[in-house]
Write a structure and sequence with these properties.
Pfam families: EamA (PF00892). By secondary structure, the chain is mainly alpha-helical. The chain has 13 helices and no strands. It has one domain. The C terminus is likely disordered.
């Protein structure tokens, strides 16, 4: 059984806030840079930052010589955890509503659930866990409202929706692969994944969009922030959470992202606050609590008596 502690809940909350605010910064950055080059810049900056930390810590990755299959898995993870989803989201958000993008990210939890049941030991699909995730997803749908599946009239809207859902699938599959990797340094793993991602995205950006554009100061600051915080630092946290608490627990982040996105958009971009915000938030929190009922009970000490306590009670009664 996965031992989920208060530290795991704190890390998940930080990730939700960090990635929820990322949409605001992406919107600013895309005003001065193209989608493929934004993805390339984010991943490259993140790779440089995490590699520097990793090498400072000794540069060791695996605790034992890796099998060839592990090297193949790392290459696949480099594509699925950063390169492909960044490109797909940046491109897809040009043609879909922000509501649909939010729902597509929330769907990561629903995709992870059956995958973890079959491919991750100890992550069995229970009725409580399934019901909790469904309730949370309904809450996200209420939060986003009617714009989630409304059409914006873009010519490539269908392909934009496919791109967003494909990005969600990438995140779900990468979480499963991260959990199945052998013992590995989380910072080193993050650095390697971002290096692989950069090796893929930079040639694609050159091929699709040509040479990188000249950017102004605001775009440069936004891009640097995206590379260092939601890409590098958050990726290290994500690997740590998945490795220690499991992909199903990690998928709770995807429900928080739309909530923070709406709240921060209201605070900093003067966007309207949905009237159903309170109900949506209540459903999301109820869904998260129901799906992680056992972990919450252990966290607050309401666990079943241990064997030693049970034996002591039996002796007292004799």
């Amino acid at each position: 059984m996965t031992d989920i502690t208060g530290r795991h809940w704190l890390m998940v909350a930080i990730l939700g806030l960090t990635w929820g605010g990322t949409f605001l910064v992406i919107e600013i950055a895309l005003r001065g840079i193209t989608p493929f080059w934004l993805a390339a810049a984010r991943i490259t900056l993140g790779a440089l930052f995490t590699t520097a930390i990793w090498q400072f810590r000794g540069g060791k990755l695996f605790s034992a010589p890796p099998a060839p299959s592990n090297k193949i898995a790392l290459c696949a993870l480099g594509l699925l955890s950063s390169a492909l989803p960044f490109i797909l989201l940046n491109w897809g958000q040009q043609y879909v509503t922000s509501g649909f993008a939010g729902v597509s990210m929330a769907s990561v939890a629903l995709i992870v659930l059956p995958l973890a049941h079959f491919f991750v030991p100890g992550e069995r699909l229970t009725w409580r866990r399934a019901l909790g995730f469904i309730i949370g997803f309904v809450g996200v749908g209420i939060l986003i409202g009617g714009q989630a599946f409304s059409s914006n009239g873009a010519e490539l809207e269908l392909f934009g929706r496919i791109a967003c859902m494909s990005a969600a699938c990438c995140y779900a599959f990468s979480s499963i692969l991260i959990r199945r990797m052998p013992k590995i340094d989380p910072i080193g793993m993050t650095a390697v994944l971002l290096i692989i991602g950069a090796m893929v995205v930079i040639p694609l950006a050159l091929l699709v969009e040509g040479l990188p554009p000249m950017v102004d100061g605001k775009t440069l600051i936004a891009t640097a922030f995206l590379g260092l915080i939601p890409t590098a630092a958050a990726s290290i946290l994500r690997v740590s959470v998945v490795r220690s608490a499991g992909p199903v627990f990690m998928s709770l982040v995807s429900y928080q992202v739309p909530v923070w996105s709406v709240l921060l958009g209201t605070l900093f971009l003067a966007e309207p606050l949905p009237s159903a915000m309170v109900w949506a938030l209540a459903l999301i929190l109820c869904g998260m609590g129901l799906s992680q009922y056992g972990a919450l009970m252990r966290l607050f000490g309401r666990t079943q008596p241990t064997a030693s306590v049970t034996q002591h009670i039996e002796r007292k009664s004799l």
